[in-house]
Amino acid sequence: MAVYTEVGDDDLEMFVAQYDIGNVLSCKGIAEGVENSNYLLSTDRGTYILTLYEKRVARADLPYFLGLMDHLAAKGIACPTPIHGRDGAALREVCARPAAIISFLRGLWVRKPSVAHCAALGDALGALHLAGRDFPLRRANSLSLDGWRKLSDEVATGAYEVEPSLGREIAAELEALTASWPLELPVGVIHADLFPDNVFFLDDRLSGLIDFYFACNDFLAYDLAICLNAWCFEPSGDFNATKARALTTAYRKVRRLDDAELAALPVLARGAALRFLLTRLFDWLHHVEGALVKPKDPMEYARKLRFHRGVTDPAAYGLT
Amino acid sequence: MAVYTEVGDDDLEMFVAQYDIGNVLSCKGIAEGVENSNYLLSTDRGTYILTLYEKRVARADLPYFLGLMDHLAAKGIACPTPIHGRDGAALREVCARPAAIISFLRGLWVRKPSVAHCAALGDALGALHLAGRDFPLRRANSLSLDGWRKLSDEVATGAYEVEPSLGREIAAELEALTASWPLELPVGVIHADLFPDNVFFLDDRLSGLIDFYFACNDFLAYDLAICLNAWCFEPSGDFNATKARALTTAYRKVRRLDDAELAALPVLARGAALRFLLTRLFDWLHHVEGALVKPKDPMEYARKLRFHRGVTDPAAYGLT
């Protein structure tokens, strides 16, 4: 959560005048997204999100993210859509930062996803992967093996603070994944961060997916593995195979998983767990005491990783 | 700015069910108010603010604040109004905190108030003071002389970090104000924090006043002095007497200032400057390095205080 940049009334007025969205009635900084400054903007025509992209998002990646939202929305995926200005552009600048106005998506995220929520997610993830097939832009996943290696080096000296053997465990895992990571699987646009807080529901119906700022091109099944980790473990740490079965079954009704993808799922799930273990560990070690943003527990993902290391057959995920 | 408490979807649903405001469509934590957790709540009936009162607001004061907003709104003052639940209560609990749903007020605050904005403020402040006359509850101003003394003790050892002689200056000022502070002036309900960010405008028309969580009973002219400090100094530090004249003239058209109030204005303005110097200095000294909330510069108010020390006649404020 963050509002890093404060947009004054004058700047706002000049910015909004470049769009055909009516007159501003209010503009509130919202505590959403760690990466960007977000405002809930209300005009006499509707409600929008104003996003200022802060330094953690590379400017060169913005056409990919905004273009992807345009593309997906055009294909019927419920997701935020960039509003284009009178000049046709969706990306411009305010307060010396790249900025865009995005449509506002109704809904709440569920804190305790049920089996039915997991099924709805699987359906939406499958539809997302199909809709992304003909998106023409490309963006490499900076948080795959190479990125993990870099992060692993950066947390190497501090990891012991969290758990004495954690650094060794990460190094060993990285070596194992380097050896076993799939070379070829169906690729496409993945969301790469589809945690419960990025999936909105209204009356238990999925109302949309948000936050495409980690989206990239990678193995489609890796996206499913991220969701297995984020949605199918209980707060106790136990893996809920019923939820996993609901998620994967719904996904497979929309998009077929081939044999190689099924076989790779345990190793993809280990990679997905390592990815969030590393970024959480990094944030944990660089956390400022007393800052408002509370870092997430890296050990949650170390425990998920250990679970997947014990999985040899995708049947453990409820797949049949 | 802060969201300290995260309200989950389940808690929210149960809470909102106690009101007749329709079904929740979205709920976003907003970066507004340092004291409380605020959410922008949208339902199929309208937009509201959900406030969870954190520990900096005394629970015993909440009936005063909420009752005052009810009272003022009934008198036609444009301000947020507590929504009463099906049981008639405006104050209840969520996530173990006192909480209320308040009507949402449209508008933006102006970063660079003009003379016309200051006149609109004076008019609204006068109307606020008249509307508060028959409000039956009482709350002492905890940030008057006694409060300043306590704060002064707490910052005494750290003040030199900001400016070597600042501690001595504060002690001397406190002594001077103790000797010269008025004993009797017209009293009533004051807002006590009517800075530009608490006054909303739409198309240069004042659309409402917000944030009554410092409201209390004190000298009415002290509220005007707070506004002189908050609205009539330029970013350069210069006092803009044209703005001050616009503010006070508009105020006096609504509520007469008697001779004693006029004569007291310079000492009230010194007190108002000391009050914000002390709280800002306290926050500055207790600031956590790297935290998202950037403390406000205490020296801005030391400079305002010095200006007022040189004022012997209220004519300096543009009053005639």
Describe this structure as you would to a colleague.
- Two copies of one chain form a homodimer.
- The longest helix of chain A is centred in the C-terminal third of the chain and has 27 residues, at 259-285.
- Chain A has nine helices and nine strands.
- Chain A is an alpha+beta fold.
- Chain A has a five-stranded antiparallel sheet with strand order 1-2-3-5-4, covered by helices on one side. In chain A, strands 6-9 form a two-stranded antiparallel sheet.
- Chain A starts with 8 loop residues before the first helix and ends in an 11-residue tail after the last helix.
- Chain A folds into two domains: 9-103, Phosphorylase Kinase, domain 1, CATH 3.30.200.20; 115-317, Aminoglycoside phosphotransferase (APH), C-terminal lobe (Aminoglycoside 3'-phosphotransferase, Chain: A, domain 2, Alpha-Beta Complex).
- The A-B interface holds A 1-4, 8-10, 12, 23-32, 40, 42, 47, 104-112, 200, 202-203, 288-293 and B 1-4, 8-10, 12, 23-32, 40, 42, 47, 104-112, 200-203, 288-293.
Secondary-structure map with pairings?
The structure is a homodimer of 320-residue chains.
Chain A: H1 9-16, E1 24-29, E2 36-43, E3 47-53, H2 62-74, E4 92-94, E5 97-103, H3 115-131, H4 145-155, H5 166-180, E6 187-190, E7 199-202, E8 205-209, E9 216-219, H6 220-231, H7 241-254, H8 259-285, H9 298-309
Antiparallel strand pairs in A: 1-2, 2-3, 3-5, 4-5, 6-9, 7-8
